[in-house]
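Tip: read the tokens left to right.
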């Protein structure tokens, strides 16, 4: 409900601005996206037991309201349901895949973007978008499953051999298998931040389809500027690790988005069409 109220308030503000400027144009639309999603985890990337994999997810539906102040500059607000996360392969001491660690995340993303568009009155024009994004976590689980066997001990002074494991005194340890996925972190247990501040950017084409309709095709990316896992920021600073607030674990999404939009008024190429 809180996210919906924020979206409605900003949408109302954009509408008021539209009333105040005679030359502006308001547009609304719906979007969908397919993306490569990454969880950039400092600890996992330095741990020899884990190997990141390419993971793909969808943002099945998004809503967009925007205003073009001129034919080269505008502002847009979006509300996007986004599936995110990543799968890490678990590697045993023989360097074989022995399981997986799966991070599954769902967000409601609210990017507020500055839109820069190419001029001219043609049927297609380039655009570049950039701005802040608030991401509200709606669901989150992190599970692990692996085969019994020997695993390399990571170079981490805080590492403790898991319960049931045996130190082989050769840089490896032996542990029984975990055959079914076991939840190790979740939103329900308050292991993840419920709100993240991100930066979002996109570039692509606006293509006029009809007098009031146009299509958008974009390559988009967003990156979280703060650690997505819960923790005490002040304690991290007090421990002499202020950089860890920004570097421990972050979301990165890079993908393709398509959108269909309705222009209140006339699309540019049809407006000047003879």
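Filled-in amino acids:
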């Amino acid at each position: 409900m809180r996210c919906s109220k924020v979206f409605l308030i900003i949408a109302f503000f954009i509408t008021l601005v539209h009333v105040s400027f005679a030359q502006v144009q308001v547009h609304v639309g719906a979007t969908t996206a397919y993306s490569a999603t990454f969880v950039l985890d400092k600890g996992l990337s330095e741990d020899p037991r884990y190997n990141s994999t390419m993971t793909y997810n969808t943002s099945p539906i998004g809503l967009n309201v925007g205003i073009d102040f001129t034919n080269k500059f505008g502002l847009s607000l979006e509300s996007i349901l986004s599936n995110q996360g990543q799968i890490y392969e678990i590697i045993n001491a023989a360097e074989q895949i022995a399981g997986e660690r799966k991070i599954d995340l769902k967000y409601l993303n609210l990017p507020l973007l500055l839109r820069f568009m190419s001029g001219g009155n043609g049927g297609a024009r380039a655009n570049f978008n950039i701005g802040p994004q608030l991401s509200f976590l709606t669901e989150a689980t992190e599970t692990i499953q692996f085969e019994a066997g020997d695993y390399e001990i990571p170079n981490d002074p805080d590492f403790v051999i898991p319960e049931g494991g045996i130190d082989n005194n050769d840089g490896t340890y032996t542990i029984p298998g975990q055959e079914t996925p076991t939840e190790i972190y979740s939103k329900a247990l308050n292991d993840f931040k419920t709100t993240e501040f991100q930066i979002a950017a996109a570039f692509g084409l606006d293509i006029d389809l009809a007098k009031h309709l146009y299509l958008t095709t974009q390559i988009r990316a967003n990156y979280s500027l703060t650690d997505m896992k819960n923790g005490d920021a002040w304690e991290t600073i007090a421990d002499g690790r202020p950089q860890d607030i920004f570097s421990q674990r972050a979301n990165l999404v890079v993908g393709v988005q398509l959108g269909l939009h309705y222009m209140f008024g006339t699309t540019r190429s049809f407006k000047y069409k003879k």
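The first strand starts at residue 25 and ends at 41. The chain has one domain: 2-271.
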